[in-house]
Design goal:
Layout (H helix, E strand, L loop, with lengths): L40 E3 L4 E2 L2 H4 L5 E5 L11 E7 L4 E8 L9 E5 L1 H6 L3 E10 L5 E3 L3 E5 L28 E4 L10 E7 L13 E4 L5 E4 L2 H7 L2 E10 L12 E5 L23 H6 L1 E5 L10 E6 L2 E2 L3 E2 L8 E5 L1 H8 L7 E11 L2 E12 L29 E3 L8 E2 L8 E6 L9 E6 L2 E2 L5 E2 L8 E6 L1 H7 L2 E11 L2 E6 L3 E5 L10 E2 L29 E5 L12 E10 L12 E6 L8 E5 L2 H4 L1 H5 L7 E11 L2 E4 L3 E5 L2 E2 L2 E2 L5
Parallel strand pairs: 24-32
Antiparallel strand pairs: 1-2, 3-6, 4-5, 4-7, 7-8, 7-9, 10-13, 11-12, 11-14, 14-15, 16-20, 17-18, 17-19, 17-21, 21-22, 23-25, 25-29, 26-27, 26-28, 26-30, 30-31, 30-32, 33-34, 34-37, 35-36, 35-38, 38-39, 38-40, 41-42
């Protein structure tokens, strides 16, 4: 064996250069072409590679190089594997018999290599340079790369229009796959029957698939698929997949109307209660316009209803699981105004209707005509119609009234000096008002009917004086009283009102009614307080003997629980004169409660301190006069009742009143 065995041949620099000699074999050896695992091949007919092996980083595309008669140990054959179209070597290495277990030799390609090679036929071959200087080349392995899906980056066209689906035609529903320019054998269509369009990249299971044949191609949709999805607004979509596994974008959606089950029927006219009096006016709009849809047959919770007022369509609304009929649809003021028209006068007929649908399949509807009169009275703002506060019947642009006391003559104040006097009300008549417009005035919410006034032509733009009756002022009492007026126009149902002006009324003095003695004589001398008045036989009380005083309802004066009333008792000697009996006076502050505020009985006692001294003061004259009144404070002012006076004669022929033990 040569001592060079096991080593690659070396060239010595001292050797002369040899002229290259082309070696010719009598008959070159035929090397087998590279191989490829059939699991990676989508179509063996043209060796189309499954696209997942070209684009999925978790999959590896590889070819195999079959073995040949390898060089003996110590000698090496050189293998060069080439991508034919690019002329790029993909592997160059040496092998000998010691490497036999590596064959068939797998050569894997990374994504960068694959991405550099174009779609279409890609060929691989190899060359072996034997250790003895001989060479052999294989035939090519041709594989087909295809990384372009049908339609490439475009969205496939939608299915053609599909007629509305009901139980009547559900068994014969078909989708029609339209023709497309890059259709190829091996294409498949996967179709979807969905309640909503999926988002880009969302994973959705198809409802069926078919091999693409002659186009356009009918695709039956099973009735159980339709029933499973229910009513719609159903969206029919599809994707295309070629034989390499390239999947197109999802197609444009085709919306399909589906109505499953017995269909709605027995629809009734809508109801607009605001129109029950014959016309809808501004106050009705302010209160709220509601259109009611009454119950209909075969209603499902998912059935939808919408109302059309004039040309304005409401949002669709589901009936709901409770089937809560009537369904109320509230119309916005803007919708009602727009249907009337800002320049309209008098009554305008407006159509009010509703529609029913199941899914997106129309199920009919009903409509009525209502009369609307929104003709405005009074000044209008310069901005867009309607004014921002409309339909509020209060028009802030109307001039405010002003009220003056007859004596004080202070604007919007009635002072104590104005008590019992009528007040003056002054009003500038707005120039937008018209002759025969009717003014009505209100003291708080009380109509001052004596002030009702039809405008004359020469009133327009002028200041007019009115008189507010004292009776109306007194009836409302002292307070901050809102005062306003309204304007009516003959033939127009709309009533407009001014803003309120606050009138500070302190003119009414309170005159509390006097208290009342109880137990006085019912026979002559009537009313005298004698011995019988000391005891209440019907309602005995441990405080008796006492003189009882009934205090009237104090709530009528504005007092409330927690306020205080003070009772005062005094006595004078004899039937005439003002000689005060000393020591008899009694004063007691009583806190008002929910129990006593509407009236109570106060007792003058103890007897020996406040009653008996009348008998003892000036014998032999034992009679006197008792006086009682009450006082209270309200809103910072003090009020005193009138005095109740009665003869006190607490004795008999033999002396002072006998008392019970």
């Amino acid at each position: 064996m040569s001592d060079s065995a096991g080593k690659r041949p070396a060239v010595n620099k001292g050797q002369p250069k040899l002229r290259p000699i082309r070696i010719h074999h009598a008959q070159p050896l035929a090397l087998s072409a590279p191989g490829v695992d059939t699991v990676m091949i989508a179509d063996p007919a043209d060796n189309t590679v499954k696209v997942e092996y070209l684009e999925d980083d978790s999959k590896v595309f590889r070819i195999t190089i079959p073995t040949w008669v390898l060089a003996p140990p110590g000698r090496y054959d050189t293998l060069v594997v080439r991508h034919v179209q690019s002329g790029t070597p993909v592997l160059e290495n040496e092998f000998n018999r010691d490497d036999a277990d590596k064959f068939p030799l797998a050569i894997e390609f990374n994504r960068a290599q694959l991405d550099a090679w174009s779609d279409g036929v890609n060929s691989f071959d190899y060359q072996v340079m034997y250790y003895n200087g001989m060479e052999d080349a294989s035939g090519p392995l041709d594989v087909r790369f295809d990384r372009k899906p049908p339609y490439e980056k475009a969205y496939p066209a939608a299915f053609p229009v599909i007629a509305n689906i009901t139980d009547a035609n559900m068994a014969t529903v078909k989708l029609s796959l339209p023709d497309y320019p890059d259709r190829a054998d091996g294409d498949k269509v996967f179709w979807f029957w969905l309640n909503e369009v999926p988002a880009e990249g969302e994973d959705v299971d198809p409802d069926g698939f078919a091999d693409v044949g002659k186009l356009p191609q009918d695709i039956p949709v099973p009735a159980d698929v339709i029933r499973a999805r229910g009513d719609g607004g159903i969206y029919a979509l599809y994707v295309l997949m070629d034989k390499a596994g390239n999947v197109s974008r999802i197609s444009a959606a085709r919306e399909v109307g589906v109505a499953v089950g017995p269909l709605p029927g027995n629809l009734k006219d809508p109801v607009v209660n605001a129109a029950a009096d014959g016309v809808i006016d501004q106050q009705d709009v302010f209160d709220g316009i509601v259109v009611q849809v009454l119950a209909f047959d075969n209603a499902k919770p998912t059935d939808q209803v919408r109302v059309i007022w004039g040309s304005d369509e409401s949002e669709w609304r589901e009936v709901g699981s409770l089937n809560a009929f009537p369904m109320d649809f509230r119309m916005t003021p803007k919708v009602v105004w727009d249907s009337y028209g800002g320049s309209s006068k008098g009554e305008v007929a407006v159509t009010v209707a509703y529609e029913v649908r199941r899914g997106t399949v129309p199920q009919g509807g009903r409509g009525i005509e209502v009369m609307v009169n929104l003709e405005r009275i009074g000044p209008v703002g310069p901005g867009p119609d309607p004014d921002p506060e409309w339909p509020d019947p209060v028009n802030p642009r109307l001039p405010l009234p002003a009220v003056y006391g007859k004596v004080s003559d202070t604007e919007n104040e009635l002072l104590p000096v104005d008590e019992f006097e009528n007040a003056r009300l002054m009003l500038v008549i707005d120039k937008s008002l018209q002759e025969k417009d009717e003014l009505t005035f209100y003291w708080d919410d009380a109509h001052l009917d004596s002030l009702d006034y039809p405008l004359a032509s020469d009133d327009i733009g002028e200041e007019v004086e009115f008189e507010v009756p004292w009776a109306a002022i007194a009836a409302r009492g002292n307070d901050i009283v809102p005062v306003h007026y309204k304007v009516r126009r003959p033939g127009n149902p709309n009533v407009v009102g001014s803003d309120t002006v606050d009138v500070d009324v302190t003119a009414i003095d309170i005159h509390p009614e006097k208290p009342e003695f109880l137990g006085g004589n019912t026979g002559a001398p009537v009313g005298w307080l004698t011995c019988g008045a000391l005891y209440d036989e019907d309602n005995p009380d441990p405080l008796d003997p006492a003189i009882r005083v009934r205090v009237p309802d104090l709530a009528q004066y504005g007092l409330k629980a927690g306020d205080t009333v003070t009772l005062k008792w005094t006595a004078v000697q004899g039937f005439v004169g003002e000689t005060v009996i000393p020591g008899v006076a009694l004063e007691e502050a009583i806190e008002l409660t929910a129990t006593n505020i509407n009236g109570f009985v106060w007792r003058v006692q103890p007897y020996e301190d406040h009653i008996l001294p009348i008998y003892d003061f000036a014998p032999p004259d034992h009679d006197g006069r008792g006086r009682v009144h009450y006082e209270f404070t309200l809103a910072g002012r003090s009020y005193v009742s009138d005095i109740e006076e009665q003869v006190v004669s607490m004795h008999g022929p033999s002396g002072s009143c006998p008392l019970k033990p």
